[in-house]
Amino acid sequence: MGPPVGRALHYSVFARAKGGRWSRPASADVRVVPPVSDVVIEGGEKAVTAHWRAHPDVAAVEVTRTTGGAGGPSETIAVEHNRAFGDLAVGDGVRYHYTIIACYLTATGVLRSEAVVVRGATRPEARPVTKLTASAVDGPGLAVKLSWRQRTGSEVVVRRSPRPCPWDYGQTVELAELARYGVELHGALIEKGESVTLTVAVPSGRSYCVPFTIGPKGAVRGQDAIVDLTEPVRHVQAQRFGDDVRITWTWPDEVSAAEVVWDGGRRRITRQQYREEGGCQIHGVPRVTRVDVGAVVPGAHGESESRSAPISVEVEQRPPRLAYQIRRRGHRLVGGVKCTVTVTGVEVVGEVTLLLVAAAGAVMPQKPDGGLELLRTSITVAAGVPTVLPEVEVPSVMRKPYWLRCFIAEPAGALLTDPPVSQLKVS
Fold it and tell me: Does pLDDT of 293 surpass 80?
């Protein structure tokens, strides 16, 4: 049994430590005035009805209606047995606010509960949704935002199916038959006046999203929207090898092709080609700095293909190229061998450190530490202007065959192109 309704109740709380004295009480007064609960409001043809649950001791329930927004001019609505109302003085296309207050009799007068405010509207004649727009939503997973307009009080559901809708626009479908077509979409629903948006997750591939307006005779089929979404590729990476670039990524399931796009070109590559190449190879792209990769799913039965949102990856810039020539003069036994290096480039190269190395043996040195360092100097190269380095002498300990080769010290700000072997190898 609950506390009595409408009477002032006094509660006091005492506290003490184990074995100690009780504290002074902390007291509070309360009066129980239960509001109505479980309100159900429904729109009908030229009518709004509602019913609810009320406390057994309720003496009366007051209902007022405001048009537009709460707080405006109100009208009193007749209540049936303190449990329901039927409002017939309403019009289509208007949103009403109903304020419901439970009243209780006490010895001192009438007590009123907190107000319960609900919204309601008539359910006008079912008309088809004339336009449904769909747009992909950025973020993880596949989601779409559907937008349409509906009259106030109308109930619209959207069903999704991989198959085209079997009914024509404007056709009325029995609800039991409608339930066998696709699935009803549920998600984040936002209503602003007559504008409605629904954001919902969808599977990859083609989806037919069809709105249906619910009416007393069934559901009226509206204008559908066709959604083609595909899971994007993941973990896209780019590696540059001189003028060429290799792109790699993780394939989504059920995706058999991808389209790779860069400034000045594009390439469609299948999963089989990707495996054979160890990635997607792009040749002769010295100035490309970004590549976009999108997954592609071919359409079935002649339908158009589905494409994912492209994923972009930055490509490191190709270092500028430098070429060099080595000129030798003299003889080891007569004054020694001297050599001069001339460096050229087709574009401006900022400061780099150039090394000249001599290495004995039949195998050309592959690293700067593979031989004896003869020269280390910092240079800046102007486009098309030869840069001549100081002449150096080859140590007399070098016996044929030996090599003379240049390197750029790390971090390398340019790529170095070797001259013919006849300039590098002394034999």
Answer: yes
